[in-house]
Write the structure tokens for this entry.
Amino acid sequence: MRNAMRMNRRLRRVLTAAAAVVALGGAAAIAPAAAQAGGGPSGVVVTADGTICWEKGGGKPAVTVHLSEVAKDPVTVVVDTVDGTAVAPEDYAAIKGLVVTIPAGASSVQVPLTIVDDGVVEPDEWFFVSLSKPSVGQIGKNPATVIIKDGAPPAAAK
């Protein structure tokens, strides 16, 4: 019974990941998307870095949202997570419609992530962090990929 539940969960993750790729438009959605420009002729490009985090005790996981240049005024962008093989809320806490502000004079801000220890031994899992609606400029490389490593980090990585 337990093996059947694990297989069912794995199948759901694979199907969810395939649906996410379709919803994001496949590889085209991962390339820079000038069509997602959020207002104004500014040359600012907003991107997010992916990250690798651990299911158990891996510090404070976060993705960093970057501007291509220091902002003279505050810049806002909407952050959402999209399931991949990692599924919210079983593997991580979803983020939906979070408006993040990069303050004037800054070029980046960190968005904290919450990873859930599901107690299941499994291969690495992943999900996306997607950006949209920048107050100026356009979205660049999008989405960012977050990889969840099973277990705890090696002692040297803590």
Remarks:
- The CA atoms of residues 55 and 117 lie 5 Å apart.
- The chain has one domain: 2-153.
